[in-house]
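Subject: Sanity check before I submit

Could someone independently write out the structure tokens for this chain? I want to compare against mine line by line before I put it in a report. The sequence has 182 residues.
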Amino acid sequence: MMHPFRTDRNTGESTVLPSVDISTEVLEGRSRRIKATIAVPGSLEQVWQLLTDYDRLSDFIPNLTLSRRIPHPEQGIRLEQIGSQCFLNIKFCARVVLDMAEQFPHRLDFNMVEGDFRDFYGCWSLETLESPEGPQIYLGYELTLHPPRSVPVQLIERHLRRDLTQNLQAICQQATVAFAPA
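---
Independent answer below. Compare away.
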């Protein structure tokens, strides 16, 4: 099996990317549920801190062009996020406004309150599991979405699976850099 790799733009060095387990479930109508997991270095608290640094997520998640906290009418956590990518020489952008519900340090729920999808909700989950290398943090992501009628659901599904894989690998790489032993 070939492992995907990325070449560092500054050093020219290639690195093997961590594997992402990903699955898609076809729900009623045009809805889909996508689930993905990846092993991430660091402690629960460190990975939680990385995920909840909302205003900096777009600094290292490749398909996220904007992530910022915005005022919430009831003192909760509300984010505006814009994802962007090109396919078929067309730039596609999707915007969501999400309400976040933090359950430190194991679960982070999100629910779209405004945006370009008919439905968009899910959660991040963190779990410590033992492995031959020692304790590992397993980061899970689950998304249920219903795309707008103007976009073919298979196209959205295919691109979200690819983007989610890249995004989880980027989170893992960010954690590797941020939490590497000195």
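---
OP: Matches mine. For the report I'm noting this point. The chain has a mean pLDDT of 87.
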